[in-house]
Specification:
This protein has one domain. It is globular and about 45 Å long. It is built from 8 helices and no strands. About 75% of the residues lie in helices and about 0% in strands. Helix 3 runs antiparallel to helix 4 and helix 4 runs antiparallel to helix 7. It is mainly α. The longest helix is centred in the last third of the chain and has 26 residues.
Length: about 160
């Protein structure tokens, strides 16, 4: 039953991303990608290969709807590759026994560190691959900072509301 709830929640987040947040282009430099929430909150107990496969599927779906030629898929695979190592650094062993990354499971400080690092990696990868040129690096950094800030606020806000 828990898996069906989680899959339903992820599908809702993906639909919101495609129908709402992809249409929301704030100031020309803000593209909030809340779909990374699906990847950030994956169960810790999944094998690394399953993480990578799920990341590839989520990225592929986003590429289809965003018409972005593999940019999201590459970013999601990178994110899921780095995820277990980052969790090992940020989350202590006692907390590793929990099934899922959440505010309740690891606390605000660890969740904030984890979210900031993962979102910055994802957004920098997406915008760098989309620009595909060093001449646009200033705008890529601006997009990364602005979009990451909004995405981080949304992810942390979701966790606060869900686990309060």
């Amino acid at each position: 039953m828990e898996w069906t709830k989680q899959i339903g929640r992820y599908l809702l987040i993906m639909v919101l991303q495609v129908l709402l947040f992809d249409q929301l282009q704030l100031w020309g430099a803000c593209h909030p990608y809340i779909y990374v929430l699906c990847l950030l909150m994956m169960p810790i107990t999944l094998p690394h290969s399953a993480d990578m496969l799920i990341g590839a599927c989520v990225g592929f779906i986003m590429d289809i709807f965003c018409n972005s030629l593999g940019v999201h898929m590459a970013a999601c695979i990178l994110l899921m590759y780095i995820r277990p190592y980052l969790i090992g650094v940020i989350v202590n062993d006692k907390d590793r026994l929990n099934e899922q990354i959440s505010l309740h499971a690891i606390g605000m400080e660890a969740l904030l560190k984890y979210t900031v690092i993962m979102v910055l990696i994802h957004h920098l990868t997406v915008f760098s691959l989309a620009a595909w040129s060093w001449s646009h690096m200033g705008f890529v950094l601006l997009e990364t900072i602005v979009s990451s800030t909004i995405t981080i606020l949304l992810v942390i806000g979701y966790n606060v509301l869900r686990y309060k």
